[in-house]
Structures are given as structure tokens and as C-alpha cells.
Amino acid sequence: MDGPEALIARRIAQGRGLEPADLVIKGARVLDVVTATLFESDVAICGDTIVGTFGTYEGVETIDGRGLTVAPGFIDTHLHIESSLLTPLEFDRCVLPHGVTTAIWDPHEISNVLGTAGIDYALAAAAASIMDIRVNLSSCVPASPLETSGARLEVGDLTPYRGRDKVIGLAEFMNFPGVLNADPGCIAKLAAFGDGHIDGHAPLVRGKDLNGYLAAGIRTDHEANNYDEAFEKLRKGMSVLIRESSIAKDLHALWPLITPETSAFLAFCTDDRNPVEIAEEGHLDHMIRWTIAQGVAPAHAYRVASWSGANAFGLRDRGLVAPGKRADLVLLSDYEGCRVEQVIAGGRLVTDALFDARPAVAPVGLDSMKVAPVAATDLLTRGNRGERPVIGVVPDKIVTERLTLELGAEEGVVQPDHEKDAAAVAVISRHGVNGNIGRGFVKGFGLRAGAIASSVGHDSHNICVVGMDHADMAVAVNRVIALGGGFVVAEGGEVRAELALPVAGLISLEPHEAVREKLVALRAAASALGCPLSEPFLQVAFLPLAVIPHLKITDFGMVDVDRFEVVAQ
Ligand SMILES: Nc1ncnc2[nH]cnc12
Ligand SMILES: [Mn+2]
């Protein structure tokens, strides 16, 4: 026998204790998330598979498990690795040590810029990473018809990827108005993937509209930011993915959902989490730790972070410390505090040498700035004094308010107003498709001067700039273009801080430690301009997301998301 048959025979022999296992964790306390109990045991591993628990085993190699608790590897059920600002392999090196052994990636950020080349990049990275990166195919590129993306993905672009290694199904179906209105393009995608997994994205969708959205075959949601909405979705059979991103922090509202009965139907996700927060707080380990600190039984929190997510996405080979399951294991020095000591990914102890041995993945999209430098006059909103729609930023939320403010004008140009905390905002099309510039105003950035610009502008990733001075806005935008993409703070005609994001205008080529340092400097520069927000760049980056209520801005202009129409250019 050789090949799969020999491997199965080896697993049986090692599981039965007839021969030493490849690797044994000796004398640990093991978490069983099925019965929510802990038990003392060795854990025997053959290759990438757990083969023995509830027993004593000999191992070719052993790990001293005394004083440690072994939990199933954590599963981030919905994220955009691009939002970490890191390359996927740098994300792997940054996040796997936090116990996240599986990450389910929707590469719609890079796909909005590069099209299927973005999906190919994601799959190449998934083949090289140590953590098991799975890919859901980006269902809505562009996210809405009210923006200009760098590419479009129709059903015919997606179906060739079905069944590919690492591919699960269809990623977050954000165009919920398109679903509810039975838009033909949406229906075609739902039909093509209906027999598999379809992820959802349904902020504030309730009642019979939610029933219609679910009847379309959509299985999960991560956009509920309040208990009642999440509870309704849970009771209607959705897997609710509780999110703690760097900007949308829903854990504090949703942790009470986690009970003995519901924890099998809830999962954790991060959506968009950057290296500063990963370093300062953690990743899913932070979510587990924080949830337990609220009083949730530890075993239920760990179940949400492992088995429940595996089950929701059809990953039947993982999520338990049990024979036959994938050897994704987290060794904890503090069970209630979720302090990760060591991680085993696919049966391999995670070490620096393991990361160093990965094959390289070539960067893509290094020429994604297909736009000429702008002049300050390009960013002006022409008009007279009067009332106009203004985006209301809500700290730690991506939902924004639809405000109306009276703003003054000078010589036919509408002016930012520091007293009213009304900054100018513009979105500059950057994909070489057209010369669109959307212009408007936003309240909540607290700026007294200067400008903040970003080539990360969800999800079409045009350049978004917020400022109190149009000349500084142009300086910031033009530096973003010169960098090939990035975040820039400018004041008094000077660049005060910057981070280059040359991979599709979204991702840095630097190590996560360097990206973290530059993000800290950018936050400090934004704060020096008066900005009180903990995440100023993500707040800028989410202003264009026209599938999140209520008022946003794209390269088309100000978009009323509830009425799904452009309300001001
Ligand atoms: N990056 C993203 N794209 C679409 N919807 C989101 N909701 C939160 N983050 C998002
Ligand atoms: Mn979403």
C-alpha cells in the first residue's frame, strides 16, 4: 500500500497505540467543546490529523503539555486579509501565533481593483501559507452599481473557481437591494452557487425582507450590530458571525447572544482588523478572552471560535480535539484568559523556521494608480450657502448617519466648517475607467486643519480624502498616487505621515511590525490635526461603502444607501 491508503493505515495504527505517534502532546488538559468539559489526556497526532485522545501515547516527537490546556484551533469565519494592510503571508506570520489556524477570506478588496487576478493571488497565497486560508468567491464586485471599481466579476467569472482547492463558496452577498429586487445578475450568482455555501451581508435587513434574503439561499451574516437584529437572524436559521474589526466593534452588543443553546450557531469573525489592534489587543484570542470576561462559560466561547464556525462553513474535518480531526490545536497557558503559548497547524508546531520555509508569493497590482495628480480646484464643491446632506460618522461603527447641515460659501465654493465639524470629502476614481470625482461633506472627524487621504476606499478602492483645506487635500491625494497607494496625512502643504500600500493600493510590502509602527505615527498625525477617532483611516476608508446605511460617498457623489440613489454630486 502507498498513498492515501498507507496514510489511513498509519493513522489507525497510531490511534490504536500499536506504534508511536508522529507527535504527542503529553499530560495536557484537553477541552471538549461538544460536552463543554475538560479532561486530562495525551493528544496523539499522525501527520496532519489527530488520532488519539483519552489515553496515554508514545510519540516519535513529544511536547510537554503539563500545565497547558489544548483547545481546537480558532476559525476567523469572515475577513478581508487586505484590510490587515499586510500581504497574506505576512498576515499568516502575524495572526497564526494568536491561535487562528483557519481564516475564511473574501478577497473582494483586491478583486475590486484587479478582478480575477485578485482571486488568483488569494489562491496562490492560500497554497503557501501555514494557516489554512480558505477563499469565498467575491460575489459583489463592484459592491453596488453606484461606484466605479477597477473590475467587474459576473457569474461567468466566478464559476470556473468552484471546486478549486481552498475555495468554499460565494462570499458576502452585499448587494442586498439587488437580492431583494431579484436583480438578474444577483439571481444568476445565487442560482450558480445555491447548492453550496453563500455568505451574507445584510445590515439592518429585518422582517419579511430578511425572509426574502434568506429564501435566496444565503446562510450567514456578520453585519448585525445590535442584539435584536442578530437574535432575529439567529432564530431564522442564519449563522451569526459576531464581528470585532478595527472599526466595526459588535462584540459588546452581541456577546449576550452566546448561551449553551445558541453557541453552536454563532461564530467569530474580524472582517477588517489591522496590525496595531492585533498587536495591542490580539485577534480571535482577544474576542474569546473578552467574551469570557463578560461571564460567558469559557467552553462556549471556545466552541463559538472553533467548532461552530467550522460547522457553519461545512469544514467537517476540524473544530474539535478529537481523533480524525485536523490537527489544528492551540496550547493555552491560561484557559480563561486565552493566553496562547504554542500553536499546532496541520500537525506542525508553529515556529519561525516554519514561516521562513514557505514559498514566496509574487505581489500583484504594483501599478494600480491609473489616475493623474489632482489640483485643489478639482476637489471644490461649488454652490451657495444653504442646507446640504452631510455624512455623520459614528465612532466604532461603519454605519453612518444621514445629516443635514447649513454650510457657508465663499465666491461660489461651499466651505468646510470647523465649528460644525463639517469637513470636505472627495472620492477620486483611480482605475483609469473615468475621471469621476464625488464631492461632499462629513461630520465627525474633528479636524481643525489639514487632510487625510487613503487609496483604501471600500469596496471599489478609489481614493478617498477628508480635509479642512482643499490644497492640503490635493497634497495628500497626490502623495497617495506617488506612493502607488497608501495612507497620507498632510497639513500646511506638507506630508506629516504616510504608509505606502503598493499592492493594488491596498497592501504594504513591509513586515507587520513596520506597518504597525507607521500606523501608530499616522494615528498621531491625525490626532494632531484634532481627530478624536481611534481609527481615522478606516473611517475614511469606509465612507465610500455604499452597501452600509445610511449616507456614503462614492466617485458618483453622495449616496443615500436606503434609497440607493445619488443625492448630491
Ligand atoms: N470590507 C468590507 N466590505 C464590505 N462590507 C464590509 N463590512 C465590513 N467590512 C466590509
Ligand atoms: Mn460585510
What does the model show?
This protein is α/β, with parallel strands linked by helices. The protein folds into 2 domains: 73-316, TIM Barrel (Alpha-Beta Barrel), CATH 3.20.20.140; 376-566, no CATH class. The protein has 18 helices and 29 strands. Strands 1, 2, 3, 4, 5, 14, 15 and 16 form an 8-stranded mixed sheet that branches. Strands 18-17-22-21-24-23-25-26 form an 8-stranded mixed sheet, sandwiched between helices. Strand 6 (74-79), helix 2 (88-95) and strand 7 (100-105) form a beta-alpha-beta unit. Helix 12 packs antiparallel against helix 13. The structure holds adenine and manganese (II) ion. Manganese (II) ion is lined by residues 172, 174, 201, 222-223. Manganese (II) ion binds next to loops.
For this entry, give a set of tags:
binds manganese (II) ion, 8-stranded mixed β-sheet, 2 domains, 28% strand, 569 residues, alpha/beta, TIM Barrel, single chain, binds adenine
Write the layout of secondary structure elements.
Blueprint: H1 4-15, E1 21-32, E2 37-46, E3 49-52, E4 59-64, E5 69-72, E6 74-79, H2 88-95, E7 100-105, H3 108-114, H4 116-128, E8 132-137, H5 155-158, E9 167-173, H6 176-180, H7 184-193, E10 198-200, H8 207-215, E11 220-221, H9 227-235, E12 239-243, H10 251-254, E13 266-269, H11 275-280, H12 284-293, H13 298-305, H14 307-312, E14 329-334, E15 339-345, E16 348-349, H15 352-356, E17 386-393, E18 400-407, E19 409-410, E20 413-414, E21 422-428, E22 437-443, E23 451-454, E24 463-467, H16 470-483, E25 486-491, E26 494-500, H17 512-528, H18 536-542, E27 551-554, E28 557-560, E29 565-568
Helix pairs in contact: 3-4, 12-13
Bound molecules: adenine and manganese (II) ion.
GO molecular function, one term: adenine deaminase activity
Family: Belongs to the metallo-dependent hydrolases superfamily. Adenine deaminase family.
Catalytic activity: adenine + H2O + H(+) = hypoxanthine + NH4(+)
